[in-house]
Amino acid sequence: MFVLSGKGVSAGVAAGPVLVKPAARQQMGVTLVRSLNPEAELVRYHKAQQKVLAQLEALQEKTKREIGEDEAAIFEMHAIMVQDPDLNEMIEGFIKEHQLTAEAAVQTAGEQFAGMLESMDDDYMKARGTDVRDIAGQLVEALSARDGDWISKITQPVILCADDLTPSETVQLDKRMLLGFITSGGSANSHTAILARTMGIPAVVNTGETIPEEFNGHIAAIDGVAGRAYLDPEPQILMAIQNKIAAAKAQQSEMAALIGAPTVTKSGRKIDLFANVGQVSDMPLVIQNDAEGVGLFRSEFLYLGRDDYPTEDDLFEAYRTAAQALKGKKLVIRTLDIGADKKASYFDLPEEENPALGMRAIRICLRRPEIFYTQLRAILRASAYGKVAVMFPMITSIEEIQAAKKILKVAMEQLVKEGVPFDEKLETGIMIETPAAAVISDELAEEVDFFSIGTNDLVQYTLAVDRQNAALEEMASAGHPAVLRLIHKTIRAGHDAGIWVGICGEAAADPKLIPTFIDMGVDELSMSPAKILKTRKLILSLP
Questions:
Q1: pLDDT, tens digit, 9 for 90 and up, residues 476-516
Q2: Catalytic: 480?
Q3: pLDDT of residue 64
Q4: Strand partners for 5
Q5: Which of 191, 218, 480, 495 is labelled catalytic?
């Protein structure tokens, strides 16, 4: 048993098989050993087989032209071996009968077939073992190259182990296949941690230990409360974790009793509890956890994990689907917040020494209005199908919000000309996540319908603490007096102007800070869906 200590960033416990995210240079040919979907693996194998045959034909022709027919014959022989009935039967047998992935089946069958040839007395047949290993390698490479990454190979629930995850990886993961996370790096604000909290699955980050791929398929257990992970846990440890899993399920049943209850303090103060989500597929979590709306829809995830810009229709379909899934509950769509640590290659953003202070969010949108205009049109069109609001991030000045609203107005006018329906009273808000915005919040409040205080970035910029730097995590406190004063000032400014003020970010679900925020007068708290019911229980107990 190996014990890893780190930071528990998403509470809960889990146990299951390990999948190690392969290092970038090793992704080719690395995969899960077993799959629960043999039919899909057979399809993958046959497509890889055709791809290798096409490659071999091209190589044969090239060699024939440039070297000679005798030398080209080796590739013809390889093509015959790729189609060898015995080898094919062996590979398909490993997939169907042993539930191996296509890669694992090719590797296993190739090795056995090569060994069988090498055991023969005939020298010619002995030498063919090397050829079999050669074509097996080509097939594995074709399988890996076709898939493009390791994510598509996750076909059963796993505990994902990695140094950390990028936003583009995060968006591609099938959340149903995730039991928990163990990362050697990362912080409470890393994408892994945010994803884990959104999903309500346990995670331990910053263990400082890179888990090698040899652990693929081994059993791991996670205690997200204690910040510990166990590889190959001893029976008593595994039993203890399983008991905690059972207890957690019982607690979920207790929380379920709060579904449908109003979120009010004992004195009758109503607080809206909204959810932070990143994808349309997260909407069931919003409903299941009885959030009263979505306070932060991170629209940038629609731009990540792609090779080109999404079209207006791509965005519209996603927003419309999200709005309809909420069945009348509010959907606050934050406009594109790309840049800094969230990058898409096709944006061709320059490398920056201080990306958090550089080209990101509204700064990019105002400098590339064609991208912004397209997104705003899609949001407006979706507003005809639900209670949609739009929110601009990273605002630091009156000029920025006015410029953003100007483009929004152009989009509205154009849709009117085209006869396209939308909500002409669409709520417009901004995120207060810079000290500058908080300080001039009285002026900004005259321009918008609501504020949402983004505590993660507000802490970063107020306290000069890099939110991605785990070594500084203890300094990044939303309870710092400077941060609390800015939050209080913003809430007062909003209320003086007659607009509602919410808080999103990790602090919104912090039980130590929630009473303070309510005393300050906050109207809405937006958090990971999994924390909604626990927060409701807390608020019901407050005076």
A1: 899 999 999 999 999 999 999 999 999 998 899 999 999 99
A2: no
A3: 72
A4: 228
A5: 191
